[in-house]
Amino acid sequence: MTAIRLAMPAEQRAAQQAEERDPEAGRWSQDQMLLAQIVDVLRIQHFDFLRANGAKGLKPPPPIPRPGGAGSKKPAALTAEGAEVLFNLINGAPA
Fold first, then answer.
1. Residues 46-70 pLDDT 10s
2. What are the start and end residues of every segment in region (Disordered) (predicted)?
3. Looking at residue 39, what is its pLDDT?
4. Other CB atoms within 10 A of residue 25 CB
């Protein structure tokens, strides 16, 4: 089932996730992302305040899960052809 879902186009996957009402799997608007960032900052500031005032044994709060953040992909390996193109771009040669 997961393989079928991952093979779907991104738009179709987003629509299906929206129907399943899983906010962490679907797309978020800029407002929602900004609000999550604000909440993360406030939680970290509260953690820092508690630590500064003598609280011991606390762990930093985890960030709010965002869509697409669960499985970070490793970057693709650089091929010899890609390395040559990059080398030429860095050294000013035409691409």
1. 999 999 999 899 999 999 888 766 5
2. 1-28, 54-76
3. 95
4. 17
Q: What is the pLDDT of residue 70?
A: 58
Q: Which residue has the higher pLDDT, 63 or 7?
A: 63
* Domain layout of the chain by residue ranges: 2-68
Give the CA radius of gyration of the chain.
Answer: 21
DSSP string, 62-89: PPPP-TT-SSPPPPPPPPHHHHHHHHHH
d(CA 76, CA 64): 27
pLDDT at 13 over 80: no
List the one residue out of 89, 57, 68, 59 whose CA is nearest residue 24.
68
Cα 40 off chain centre by = 14
Per the CB < 8 A criterion, the answer to whether 31 and 42 are in contact is: no
What confidence score (pLDDT) does residue 23 get?
54
Q: Under the phi-then-psi rule, with left for phi > 0, alpha for psi from -120 to 50, and beta for the rest, what region is 57?
A: left
